[in-house]
C-alpha cells in the first residue's frame, strides 16, 4: 500500500538521531515560548530563521514545526495557570481551565489539555498523511460565499458562548467588530478609525489586543486585591485525572478532534475558529451547561483537542498547495524557500523524503511533548510560583517584548496598555472579554468575504443560496437560530444565565 | 569580559582584512529593515542577500520586519534613522509606486534616501485558473475584452505587485473589468486554484511552482526576454503589449546623509553577494536572477527609482486608486 510505504519512508527520515534531536529542541523551545506569555510561535520562528540556513532542509522544517505545536501545548499551560493565553488559539482554554486551576484542579486541567492535544495530534497526523491531497480540494471548494455562510453560522453559535447578560455579550461582540474595522479598507484603501496614524493602517494587532484584555487586565485585578492571590495557583492538585474526569473528556476530545481537523484545513485562522466552535458545541451538548465558565472539564478537553488538530491539519494546504493557512505557515514557506524548496504541489513528488519526514516528525514530536510535559508540568508551575513582585514585572516585560517583536511597531505597545485598562474596566462592569475577541477576529473576515462574494456575483445576493455548501451552512445557521428562539430552549437558557450570574 | 574582548578582537581582525578602505565601517551589526512580513518574497530576498553581505562585511546584518501600510511604515522608519550606515532598507517597486498611491507620506521619496544598489528584478506572469477557456495570450486578450462584464481578476491588495500589473493590463488593453482584492497573495492564489476568480498577474516567486505543477494556466511573462524557467512562455512585447512590461525590482537604500564611502562599501558587498553561486541558485528556484554588477550600484538604483516614479504616476492617477 502506497500510504504505508510513504509513512515508512517518513519515519525512516524522521527517526535519524539528528532529526530526533531537532524535533526535541523544537518541541522544548516551543513549549518554553508558549509558557512565556506574549512571545508567540510567529516571533520565535522569525528570530530562528537565520539559524536554519545552516541545517538540512528536513531538519530545519522539523525543528520549526516542533516550535509551532510545542507552543500550542505551552500556550495552554499559561492559559490554565494564570489566565493568560500564550497563543490566540488557547484563549478559549483560559475560560474553564483557569477556573479549574482556581479550584485546585490545575493538574487535572493540564493533563486533560495534554492528553487531548496528543490524541488530536495523533489522529490529525494520520489524517494529514492519508488525506492531504484529497482534503485540499475541500479547502479549494470554499469560495467567499461559503466562508461568509460559515462565519454567519459561527457568530450565531457564539451567542451561546457568552455567559452572563446577553445584552452585555452583544455589546462586546459589537465593540469587537468595531475594533476589527480599524485600519485601511481592503477594497478601496479608505482609512477607518485610524485617527490619522499610519501605524494603524493594517488594523490593530491581535496579539496586542488579546494580551491586553486577558493578560494585563488579569494582573491589574490581582494587584488590586492583595489577599485574593488567585493568579498563580499554589496548589496544582493531583496530576492524573480521575475516572470521572476521563469519562467526561472522551466525547469532547473526539468531537474536538473532528471539528479541528476539518476547520484547520481552511485557510485563515482555522485553529482559533476550531477552538471557539468546539467550546460552543460542548456547551450546547452538555448535560450541565451551567458548569461552563466554572471549570467544566469538557470546556478544556474539546477546544484543546480542536486547536491541536487544527494546528496539525493546517499543514495540509501548506504542504500540498504551498499556501499558508496562518502567519506561522507563511514563515515555514519562507524557511522552505531559503532552503531552495519552493512549496507547492510538487514537493510531495520531488521531495518525498522531506514531505513524509515532516509529517512523521509531527507524530514523534507530539509523543515527545506528552512524555516531556506531564512530568514537566510541575516545573512550569514552579516557574510561575515566583513571588508576585518578581513575576508580574517579568510577565509584563515578556508581553511587551513579545508584542513588539511581531511587527516592531511601538503603537502595538500603546494598544496593549490601552486594552489592559479596558479589560480591567470591563471586568469591573462584568463584561466578558471572549465575545469581544470573537467579534474582533471574525468581523473583518465576515466583511471581507461578504464584499468579495458580492463583487464576484456582480452584486447578486442569491449567490449565497445558489451555492450548495453555502446554502447548507445557512440552513444550519437558521436551525440554530430557531433552537435558540424556541420558548422551551430559551427558558432553559435563561436558567443557565441566572445560574452563572451568581 | 574576556569573551567580549576576544570577540571584539576577532571582529576587528575581519574588519581590518576586508574593509580597510571604508575607514573601519562597519564596526557593529547592521539592521536591514524589510517593510513586509517575515516569510514573504521580499523577506526571502533580503535574508538571502543579507547573509552573504554579512560574510563580506564581517558584521552580522540582521533583518527587521517592519510591515504595514504597503511598506511605507518601514521606509519611514529608515528615512528617520541615523545616517550612519547601520540602518538600511530593502524595498521593492512599491518604493516608487507609493509616492503616487499615497497622497501623504511621512517622507519625500526622492529626497529622504541614499542609494546602495539594485538587488533583483522579479518577473511577473499572467496566470489563469486551469480551466480558463482561452488557449494563448492573444486569445486571452480577446476573451477578456469580449467578456469584460463577467471576467474577474484577483490581486493581493492595493499597491501589491499583482495590483500594479493589473492596472497596467487594464490600461494596455483599454478595457475595464472587475478586480477582486485579497489580503495578500496566499488567499488570492487559493481562490484562483479553486476557480473562484479567473486570472491574476503575479511575481514568479508566487506563481512558478503552480505553473510547473500545472495547477494554473500561464499566458505570458512581463519581462523583455523570455525566462529560462519557462522558455515556452511568450513575452508581453512579443504579443504586442510592450507597455505591459513590468518587473518587481528590489533595491537597498540608506537614510539621506549616509557617507558616500559607506554606501560604496555596501554596494561592493552587495555585488559580492549577488555574484555568489548559492544566491544565484536560490534566486533561480524562485524564478528570478541576481541583478548584474553594473546595476548593483547607487547610480543605477537612483536612476531606476526616478524613472519608475515618473512612469507610474500617470497610471495610478488615471486609475484613481489611492491607498490612503
From TrEMBL, chain A:
Pfam family, one: TctA
Keyword terms, alphabetized: Membrane, Transmembrane, Transmembrane helix
Domain of life the protein comes from: Bacteria
Transmembrane segments: 33-53, 108-132, 144-162, 169-187, 193-217, 253-279, 315-342, 354-380, 386-406, 413-431, 469-489
Domain DUF112 per the UniProt entry, residue ranges: 20-438
Name used for this protein in its record: Tripartite tricarboxylate transporter permease
Organism of this sequence: Paenirhodobacter populi
Lineage: Bacteria, Pseudomonadati, Pseudomonadota, Alphaproteobacteria, Rhodobacterales
TrEMBL record, chain B:
Cleaved signal peptide residues: 1-22
Stretches assigned to coiled coil: none
Keywords: Signal
Top-rank taxon, per record: Bacteria
UniProt entry tagged with the keyword Signal: yes
InterPro entries recorded: BUG, Bug_dom1
Family: Belongs to the UPF0065 (bug) family.
Name assigned to this protein: Tripartite tricarboxylate transporter substrate binding protein BugD
